[in-house]
Every structure is written in structure tokens, then in C-alpha cells.
Amino acid sequence: MREDDKDHDFFSHKFPTTSQVVEELKELWSMALPLTAMNMLVFVRAVVSVLFLGRLGSLELAGGALSIGFTNITGYSVLVGLASGLEPVCSQAFGSKNWELLSLSLQRMVLILLMAIVPISLLWLNLEKIMLFMGQDGKITEMAAIYCFYSLPDLLTNTLLQPLRVFLRSQKVTKPMMYCSLIAVLFHVPLNYFLVMVMQFGVPGVAMASVLTNMNMVVLMAGYVGLFRKKEMMLKWPGCGGGGGGMMVVSEGLGELMKLAVPSCLMICLEWWWYEIVTVLAGYLENPTLAVAATGILIQTTSMMYTVPMALAACVSARVGNELGAGKPYKAKLAAMVALACAFVMGFINVTWTVILRYGWAGLFTNDEPVKALVASVMPIMGLCELGNCPQTTGCGILRGTARPVIGANINLGSFYFVGTPVAVGLAFWFKIGFSGLWFGLLSAQVACALSILYVVIIKTDWEAEALKAEKLTMVEMVMNKDKKKNEECKGLLENENGNKIDMC
Question: Transmembrane ranges (predicted)?
Fold first, then answer.
């Protein structure tokens, strides 16, 4: 590709050339592959924790699984969702080379997450009371409460970890994140073995190992930012060059960032929570033990498959934001279209392998023949769900990159709760289809969600207007700071030699 093709946007009446499409593919996957590897490492870390819980006993495994589900719903999903509100601001600020906004947004998000973990901590501390009120088994609940209590420090760790991830990937920095995750996860097994087997801490040991692994990730990523991203990281905290006004500068933009963070959080959580609802509904079927066991295997499988579209969504969000911030609307559109095409290809791959391997896949998780048969019967439906989930997840990333998370939140709310839930409940319980009915409900939700998001992204998006919005978003910080300095100069008074004050205005 010629240099001017890379540096300039192309005209709206021209289709992108083959070389431009290929270049965009290279750009996208050079970011997405390291992120996919990082997501897989995080998935492996979770599997290792479950394996060590299983070695402790069935009660410990059940309690740990209950706690992991509770903490995912009430804590991690919320923090990941809120942190995703950084994506449009950081990516567009990086595209426009507004390092000040890039840095301040990271610090503002850390403040927002610090405020968010206060109510989350209270929920985690009262897990036992909440679960007993909901009729859960007392012994399992007691074990879950122990795991949850020792996981509390992880909330503080995630207030730094999640924003740092967005901060780095918005600058197309993904390989260092992968290496940091790899180093941290390599120590995860030895940490578990030492704390659980050698020190015999049991369930608290598994929880502490997860906390320490995340802490290692934060230290490594923060070290990378401090050493190699100095240009983009201009601290404004009090005592760090900003004086007492540093905190004022950071806190002033919290409201605007919250307008992006809250709907971004809802967009992610509404889908995340729905999978937990499926697990609960499975417990009300005729054979709840069989249904819940099969649901666990299927959700683990979807989590594994989700690592690729999740990485692609994060990368296209950064790519779209970078190009809009740089004033290149049609390069942003090209990034969006290429990502959606890749998402459909991944969806077809998932359909294919879930159909071909449906009989042998469950055998990797269990030897129970009824469970394996139930999983095999639903695997093709789950594959079709992924055909909708891949473009839908990617589309959500595009909406975040264009600073329109409110639209994504509304679509997810309507699709999963006003389409998916009635269909799942109606088919599973009213029409007596049973377990398969729940997954047909998910399929209907994914189809509705994918069609709605594709309509918004492909048909309703005015890319030139989005570029103008990005310009306003990235310029607002500069204007605010210039006005503030001017006001301070106007208020400032100099004293002349006679002690008289002279108004500088």
C-alpha cells in the first residue's frame, strides 16, 4: 500500500481497494490475535481455579462455583462494563493525538471504579445472607461466602486492571498485554499448588491465588505504561505536577465519562446476566441436576468461543475510534465492515464444529451418558447462536467506538429480555419442549440483537457525522483547559513594587 493511502482517508463515492481491505485485515488481526490469546489465558486461569476447587472436594467445588457465579454477576461484569466506557474516549483521543484527554480519562475511570466497588463489596460481604434468603443449601453457601470474602482484594486490583487494558488496546498495544497475562498465568498454577496443597489453605487459597495472579498482571501492565507509554501518561494527580488542582481537573470530567460508562456497562451486563438466568431456569426443569450439569458444560463452551469475538469487538472499537479521532470517517467505516465480515466467518466456523463434534465434545467434561446426550442435542442450536453472537458482539464494539453505547444497551435489553426470555420460558415450560427450549430462546435473542445492531451500523450510521462528533469529543478537554487557564490568569493579580494590586484582565 502506498504511504498516502495509509495517511489519508478515501472518498465517500469510492469503494475501498483490495489493498486497503487487506491492509485493514492485517491491522485488525495484528491486534486481535494477541487479545484472543490473552482472553484464552484468562479462561485457562479460571479453569485452573475450578480444577483445584474440584480436588478439594464436591462441597468446595459447589461452593466455589456458586461464589464465582455470584461475583461474576455482581462484580466483574459491572467493572468490565464500566471500564468499556473508556473505549470511545481513549481510542478517539489517541487518533487525534490528544494525550491529555487519554491520560485524564484513564484516571477518571479509576475513580469511577473505586466508587463502584464500595456497594459491590457490601454485596460480597453479605453473600451468605443473600443466598440463604434465596433458599440455597446452607453448607454450600457457607463455602461460597468464604471464597467470596478472600476474593475481596480482587475488586481493588480490577479498578486498575480493567482501565489499563482499555487504555493500552485503544493505542493498538496488544502484544505487551498478552505477554503480561502469559507471565502472570504461568505463576497461577504454582501459586495454587503452594497455597492449596503445601500451605493447605483450602478454598481461601484458591481465591488468594486468583487475586495474586490479577495483581501480577496489574504490576506488569502498570510497569509497561510507566516505562514505555510516558508520552500518553501525563499524571494530573495532586502532588504529581498538577498541584492541588490536579484532582479537580481529574474529577471535573467524571460526569461526562459516566454518560458513556453506564450504558456501556448495561450493554455488556445485560447479555452476561442472561446466561446466568438460563442456568437458574434450568434448575426448574423436570430433571434439574441433569439440566444444570449440561448448562454448565454449554456455558463453558460458549465462554471459550466468546474469546475470539470479544477480542475482535475490542479491536474494532479501537480501530473505529482511532480513525474517527483522526478525522477519517471512511477508514472507520472500512474497519467496521471488515470486522463484521470476519465475525460472520467466525460464526460459520462455530456452527460447523459444534455440529461435527457435538457427540464427542461433552465427553471432555463428563462420563455421564445422559448429560453427554443432552449436550449433544443442544450443541447445533448453540452453534447457530454463535452465528448471531459473533456479528452482534462485533457490532457492539463498533457502537462503543462511535460513542453510542446507549443504542447497544437498548438493543440488548429488548433482544434478551423482551424477546429471548419470553421465548425461552414459553418453549421450555409452556410448550414443554424442556432444555432445548431455553437455547431456542437464546437463539431468538441473538437473532433479534444481531439484526438490530447490523441495521444501525450498516444502514443508519452517518460516518461523516460520527467523525464530527469525535472531533468535538476530543477537543472539549483542550477547550476546557484553555478556558480554565484564561480564567486563572484573569483572576490572578500581580503586585507592583508599591504593593498595589494590578488586575491582569
Answer: 31-53, 65-86, 106-125, 177-199, 205-227, 334-361, 411-431, 437-459
The one-letter amino acid code at 452 reads S
Condensed to tens digits (0 to 9), the pLDDT of residues 320-379 reads 999 999 999 999 999 999 999 999 999 999 999 999 988 888 887 778 888 889 999 999
Location of C-alpha cell 466456523: 349
pLDDT digits (tens, 9 = 90+) for 73-83: 899 999 999 99
| Coil/strand/helix, residue 171 | coil
CB neighbour class for 327 (10 Å; exposed up to 12, middle 13-18, buried from 19): middle
Same domain, 325 and 448: yes
DSSP string, 294-313: HHHHHHHHHHHHHHHHHHHH
Label residue 291 by pLDDT band (50, 70, 90).
Answer: confident
Q: Are residues 435 and 309 in the same domain?
A: yes
Residue 129 C-alpha from the chain's centroid: 29
Q: Which residues make Cβ contacts (< 8 Å) with residue 303, sequence separation at least 6?
A: 43
| Amino acid identity for residue 384 in this structure | L
Whose CA is closest to 439, among 387, 382, 383? 382
Q: Quick one: 242 and 319 in the same domain?
A: no
Residue 193: closest CA among 163, 213, 220, 177: 213
Question: Do 171 and 288 lie in a common domain?
Answer: no
Angstrom distance (rounded) from CA 273 to CA 266: 10
Q: How many domains does the chain have?
A: 2
Measured torsion, CA atoms of residues 314, 319, 324, 326, in degrees rounded to the nearest 10: 130
Cell for 357?
463434534
Terminal Cα-to-Cα distance of the chain (whole angstroms): 53
Is the pLDDT at 27 greater than 80? The verdict is yes
